[in-house]
Amino acid sequence: MNPKTHFKLLLIALNAWLAFYFIGLSSNYYQDWSSANQILLSLIAAFAAVPLIAFITLVLIGNDYLKISLWFAFYASVPLAIVDFIVGGVIQKNGLNIFISHWYVTIGYFYVWIIIPLVGYFLVKLKQNVNNE
Fold first, then answer.
1. Could you read off the pLDDT of 17-69 as tens digits, one per residue?
2. Integer Cα distance of 6 and 22 in angstroms
3. DSSP of 62-128, one letter per residue?
4. Would the N or C end of the chain have less CB density within 10 A of its end CB?
């Protein structure tokens, strides 16, 4: 993959993080929500937002869906965990506790490694089926 594609994936991930962050600003990054609402937020992110963003990104970016999906999972987890630590841990002075207090964000760093490659895998299978018909 060329550097331009890596940059696009990182930019998409950072924009998704920004949207999630700005939506949560009025509720202290979702800390003011009840546990039930935080669980609902996690479920919506895992089963609606992440697959939709992954599908659109993978279809628009290229042909090697599985490879791109693995890179996208990386960019949707590692850099975003660093950004969350900088914003919540350093700037807001929560330290590493940010990953515990904001558990609904932390689990996202893990489920993207399941969901995004699954979307890539299904796109590969769909492409094979279309080519075989």
1. 999 999 999 899 999 999 999 999 999 999 998 999 999 999 888 779 999 99
2. 24
3. -S-HHHHHHHHHHHTTHHHHHHHIIIIIIISS-GGGHHHHTHHHHTHHHHHHHHHHHHHHHHHHHHH
4. C
Domain boundaries, the chain: 33-132
Q: Measured in whole angstroms, how far is the alpha carbon of residue 37 from the centre of its chain?
A: 19
For the range 99-106, what are the long-range contacts, defined as Cβ-Cβ under 8 Å and sequence gap of 24 or more? 101/31, 102/29, 102/30, 102/31, 103/38, 104/30, 104/38, 104/39, 104/41, 104/42, 105/29, 105/30, 106/81
Q: Which residue is listed with tokens 């929500």?
A: 33
